[in-house]
Design goal:
The complex is a heterodimer of chains A (475) and B (102).
Chain A lengths: L1 H13 L2 H4 L5 H25 L6 E2 L4 E2 L2 H20 L1 H4 L5 H18 L5 H19 L6 H32 L4 H10 L5 H19 L7 H8 L2 H29 L9 H21 L4 H21 L6 H29 L9 H4 L1 H15 L6 H14 L3 H27 L11 H19 L2 H11 L3
Antiparallel strand pairs in A: 1-2
Helix pairs in contact in A: 1-3, 1-6, 3-4, 3-6, 4-6, 4-12, 4-15, 4-20, 6-7, 6-12, 7-8, 7-12, 8-9, 8-10, 8-11, 9-12, 10-12, 11-12, 11-14, 12-14, 12-15, 13-14, 13-19, 14-15, 14-18, 15-17, 15-18, 15-20, 17-19, 17-20, 18-19
Chain B lengths: L1 H23 L3 H25 L4 H33 L13
The chains are: A mainly alpha (475), B mainly alpha (102).
């Protein structure tokens, strides 16, 4: 674990020094960042398989790298890699580019640590390491009123979420007398009826704090604004990457902790509550996406809807659908990270307006193809990978005897397919309204990777599913 | 045990003040203050629990110190963003932030 932290933290500290030396070589900064992310990705399997039981506490229970951390860390590192590579051309002329790359590394490190924390204090520190650099990344477009407005809304929402999490932590600490997950789980398990309201209050505060980051309705208000105002690459990092860290934290705390604590027996049907929230989030996100005029706003609302799909995986925990739900959740985290990341990144080539997509096939054929594949994967069309993760989640909802949830999710998939098809129709059949612009090659490289990934894992998902199943058996 | 009740009651009042400030104030600096009040209420909780439930005081002090440092780091970056907004607009009123809608 220490090697993984050093792989990301040392370049993050050293890259800005390229500026101090007066050598503003953006390619060195970008190269160092890409190298550090690739090495970190390479280290993950060794880190996981070398742990004798899969549950590995280090040091004194602050971090544990288990199956869930493995999948989340891999997703986060892949998304960060896509973001870094596609930023190269945009940042080449910017004198502050080493700072930009360093902030990406810091926020990536924060996300990786959130997904492997096993202590509430460690979780809080990693949470701040993830959010504070990303405020600056959203505000990176200086002298731009949209960018600073987006950063301010994002800052206020994220600061509120951190404050709620902290208050929840303080109550959990009061019950347990320690901040480690195990101690808190034990305290929640032995809590009597008199302490039950306190347990509920701590859980509710933690859940709403995480929900702000996960952009679950009704806590999603900040996401479209924050993503519209920032660079497309940063929108990809937030919309595809850091939302997943919120899910990692929720999964670690609620599934691990509350299932150990037998929370389900405690006269509260929290599965139904989560299922309702999930259905509302899916519907709200998809309906709001229908009327958007801006690509990044539409994709942001669609990512809210996808977060609702992932919530199904949380809502079925503790029921008959738990195993399928967890597999589907982790599959969807990995697949959605790649497809949403590539959809956001492709707007760097297409421009932000939905109307401007008209005739994209003629002026930028490669981008149009990559965007089409990502959009159909988001809709969950069969030969592409989004189909498999949604299938697992729907089966889990049915197994958990919540067929209405599967029906709502399926109806929303049809709705989503409708507005994605509208975009695709605009790209391929409408007359171009804009001049032909050169396509950025680094964006095309990222789109090539994501398209190959989406099609390959869609046609042959068995290795990924097998990996997730074997990784979870260690969980 | 009585002393603990007083502290928890105080921190609950602070939480309520913070939530009220979040919902009713429109100036970004005031909203930030409301969030800081919630953070400090949580810190008061941690200190009171550690003292009156005779938990490990060393761990409680470490947690409280970390929380103070994190709140300061967050406030520093947040104020920088607010200053940037002020330079561009001359005001930091969140009701006026309507450039992006939908």
């Amino acid at each position: 674990m220490l090697i993984l932290i050093a792989t990301l933290a040392v370049p993050a500290v050293l890259v800005p020094m390229l500026m101090v030396l007066g050598k503003r070589h953006p390619s060195i900064a970008a190269g160092a960042t890409v190298a550090s992310l690739v090495v970190a990705l390479y280290e993950l399997p060794f880190l996981f398989w070398n742990a004798p039981t899969g549950l590995w506490y280090y040091p004194q229970g602050l971090l544990s790298f288990d199956g869930v951390s493995f999948i989340f860390s891999a997703t986060i590192l892949i998304v960060s890699l896509m973001v870094t590579v596609s930023s190269y051309g945009m940042m080449k002329e910017n004198a502050n580019s080493p700072i930009y790359y360093s902030l990406i590394l810091f926020t990536t490190l924060g996300m990786v640590l959130v997904s492997s924390s096993s202590d509430l204090l460690m979780l809080l520190v990693s949470w701040e390491l993830m959010t504070v650099p990303s405020f600056v990344l959203v505000a990176f477009r200086r002298k731009d009123t949209k960018s600073s407005e987006a950063a301010m809304k994002y800052f206020l929402a994220a600061a509120l979420s951190a404050a709620l999490i902290l208050f929840g932590i303080s109550i959990a600490y009061g019950l347990a007398g320690s901040t480690s997950f195990q101690a808190v789980a034990h305290a929640f398990a032995v809590a009597g009826p008199a302490e039950f309201p306190v347990v509920l209050l701590a859980s509710a505060l933690l859940a709403s704090g995480f929900a702000v980051k996960m952009a679950i309705a009704p806590f999603h208000f900040w996401l479209p604004d924050a993503l519209e105002g920032s660079y497309p690459q940063i929108a990809a990092l937030l919309g595809a990457g850091s939302k997943k860290a919120g899910f990692a934290a929720a999964l670690r705390i609620f599934v691990v902790l509350l299932l150990i604590a037998k929370f389900s027996t405690a006269a509260l049907n929290w599965q139904i509550a989560l299922a309702v929230v999930s259905a509302v989030t899916i519907t709200w996100g998809n309906v709001a996406a229908l009327t958007q005029k801006s690509m990044s706003r539409m994709l942001a609302y669609s990512s809210i809807a996808q977060a609702g799909y992932m919530m199904i995986g949380l809502a079925v925990q503790g029921t008959a659908g738990a195993a399928f739900g967890l597999i589907g959740l982790l599959l969807h985290v990995l697949f959605h990270g790649v497809m949403k990341g590539s959809a956001f990144i492709s707007t760097a080539n297409t421009g932000d307006s939905v109307e401007g997509l008209a005739g994209l096939y003629r002026r930028a054929p490669a981008t149009a193809l990559g965007l089409t594949i990502s959009l159909f994967a988001l809709a969950g069309l069969p030969p592409l990978n989004g189909f498999w993760s949604k299938l697992y989640l729907f089966i889990a909802a049915v197994q958990a005897s919540m067929p209405w949830l599967a029906a709502v999710a399926l109806a929303n998939s049809a709705l989503a397919l409708g507005y994605y098809s509208y975009l695709v129709k605009k790209m391929y059949f409408d007359e171009p309204t804009q001049e032909r612009r050169p396509e950025r090659p680094e964006v095309l490289a990222v789109l090539l990777f994501s398209s190959v990934f989406i099609v390959a894992t869609g046609l042959y998902p068995t290795p990924i599913i097998n990996t997730i199943v074997s990784v979870l058996s260690h969980f | 045990m009585n002393g603990l009740v007083v502290y928890i009651a105080a921190s609950t009042v602070f939480l309520a003040i913070g939530v009220y400030g979040l919902l009713s104030k429109r100036n970004a600096i005031r909203i930030m203050f409301a969030i800081e009040i919630i953070i400090n209420a949580a810190n008061l909780n941690i200190a009171a629990f550690a003292r009156y439930m005779s938990y490990d005081l060393g761990q409680a002090q470490a947690v409280a110190t970390f929380v103070i440092a994190l709140a300061a780091a967050e406030a520093a970056v947040g104020l920088a963003i607010i200053i940037e907004v002020f330079r561009l607009r001359g005001r930091v009123d969140v009701d006026e932030m309507k450039e992006m809608k939908g």
